[in-house]
TrEMBL record:
Residues 270-360, 375-463 form the Rhodanese domain. This is MBL fold metallo-hydrolase. It comes from the Bacteria. Pfam families: Rhodanese. The lineage of its organism: Bacteria, Bacillati, Cyanobacteriota, Cyanophyceae, Oscillatoriophycideae. InterPro entries: Metallo-B-lactamas, Mito_Persulfide_Diox, POD-like_MBL-fold, Rhodanese-like_dom, Rhodanese-like_dom_sf, RibonucZ/Hydroxyglut_hydro. One of its GO terms (molecular function) is metal ion binding. Keywords: Metal-binding, Plasmid. It comes from Lyngbya confervoides BDU141951.
């Protein structure tokens, strides 16, 4: 059996390629939207992709599963409980798929989503015992898939109870040696405290996963895995992802390079309503095109771009380097955005030398923030970190609105007071500060270093 995991840090997503060395057939699981890497792997291994499946209809990214049949005779597999808008071979609890020496057994594992399935894999070239579990969003590393993403409070409670039964009756009875490969891994918001490793074992999780200790009581398990103080805020783009994944995302076709734009053409697009997405670092964004939104290209780019950018508005890019163009484009495509209309040729140097207008975002160190808190009683400190970060220590005078919630709660931020935005390091604060400036706030600063620097400096924090 050939096995390969593909890790996408920006989404905390893992997908899988499993191939039979006996027949040359392969299956791809939880497919990301840029599917070329699966075909490159099949070519390198001398295998042919024959099957593809998603463990569930994802909330956090747009699937690439519908792209695959366009590239070959590939059968798509889906949960028998899923109501999908594209043709699949429906499989339910106990159903099996054989590829030479490899046996896949479907386990119906609801909880994270109602239709969720996992795949128990046996490599019969090594023996008749299962060797690994492709667990999707059920059992994660040091965590479990959050059950609070769909439905009413009553339905969410039922999902948590379903997840309890899934873990207790389907997954934990498996032998200790079975390796567990989840779809949601480090960096994903589909769990509250996902561990940094990219795989685990049944035995390790049985012994070390604190959430599993409460499985004896459905109510206690539900209480723990639905504790909002431990769960990250849900980004606004997630509901769009699940809807598109149920229907079947539109096919990408041939993607053309977004064109480089002169300053004049760039201005015309912006005046016509396009949003400028500045992908430079927070420090570089201190001088920027008026109205632009800053999401620095990095490991968290996808989540924050999806949190603050509306879905149906043309985008223009400001890049640190022209070589970053397709990295940015694919990260946007993976969460359902269209290709940008273009990017600023020559970057900010071209903008400055064209004598075009520039807006400033003030940057403070934590030392300046402390002095300003003491001097200016009117200062509004906005903390945009996650709830679990807030619990571990925050400024006594701060108000918390997570970055994911901010677009829906903008009016809770006063317009007539100076605003100092704080996060863990300054990255999310720059996203939030740029969003406020984009929507008309004027007295906004970004605190570089954030709470990490505040604590390092030994300044006082409050815990709640």
């Amino acid at each position: 059996m050939y096995f390969q995991q593909f890790y996408l840090e920006s989404l905390g997503h893992a997908s899988y390629f499993i191939g039979s060395e006996e027949t040359g057939e392969a299956l791809v699981l939880d497919v990301r939207r840029d599917v070329d890497l699966y075909f490159e792997t099949s070519l390198q291994q001398g295998m042919q992709i024959k099957y593809a499946a998603d463990t569930h209809q994802h909330n956090d990214y747009m699937t690439g599963i519908c792209e695959l049949p366009e590239r070959g005779n590939i059968q798509l597999i889906g949960s028998a409980r899923a109501d999908l808008g594209y043709p699949v071979r429906e499989m339910g609890d106990g159903d099996r798929l054989e590829m030479g020496e490899i046996l896949f057994e479907v386990l119906q594992t609801p909880g994270h989503t109602p239709e969720h399935i996992s795949f128990l894999v046996t490599d019969r070239a090594r023996g008749e015992d299962p060797v690994l579990l492709l667990s999707g969003g059920s059992l994660l590393v040091d965590d479990v898939g959050r059950p609070d993403l769909l439905g009413s409070p009553e339905e969410v409670q039922r999902h948590a109870q379903d997840l309890c039964q899934t873990l207790k009756n389907k997954i934990l009875p498996l032998p200790d040696h079975v390796q567990v490969y989840p779809t949601h891994v480090a960096g994903s918001l589909c769990g509250g405290n996902i561990g940094s490793r990219l795989s685990t074992t049944i035995g390790y999780e049985r012994r070390m996963n604190q959430l599993l200790a409460s499985l004896t009581s459905e109510d206690e398990f539900a209480k723990q895995c639905l504790d909002l103080s431990e769960l990250p805020a849900v980004p606004s783009y997630w509901p769009r992802m699940r809807k598109a994944n149920k229907q079947g995302p539109p096919l990408l076709g041939v993607l053309a390079d977004p064109p480089p734009l002169t300053v004049s053409a760039f201005k015309q697009w912006q005046q016509a309503g396009a949003i400028v997405l500045d992908c430079r670092s927070p420090e570089a964004f201190a001088s920027h095109i008026p109205g632009s939104i800053n999401v620095g290209l990095g490991s968290s780019f996808t989540i924050w771009a999806g949190s603050v950018l509306p879905p149906d508005v043309p985008l223009l890019l400001v890049l640190e380097r022209s070589q970053d163009l397709w990295d940015v484009c694919w990260q946007l495509i993976r969460i359902g955005y269209d290709l940008p209309q273009g990017w600023l040729a020559g970057g900010m140097k071209a903008w400055r030398t064209a004598a075009a207008e520039i807006e400033q975002l003030t940057l403070w160190t934590v030392q300046v923030l402390r002095d300003q808190i003491e001097r200016d009683q009117d200062l509004f400190v906005l903390d945009v970190r996650q709830r679990q970060e807030w619990k571990r220590g925050h400024l006594a005078s701060a108000t918390q609105i997570t970055g994911a919630d901010l677009p829906q709660r903008l009016e809770e931020v006063p317009r007539d007071r100076p605003i100092a935005v704080v996060c863990g390091s300054g990255y999310r604060a720059s996203v939030a500060a740029s969003l406020l400036l984009h929507h008309g706030w004027t007295k906004v600063v970004n605190v570089l270093g954030g709470m990490s620097a505040w604590k390092k400096a030994g300044y006082e924090v409050t815990r709640s």
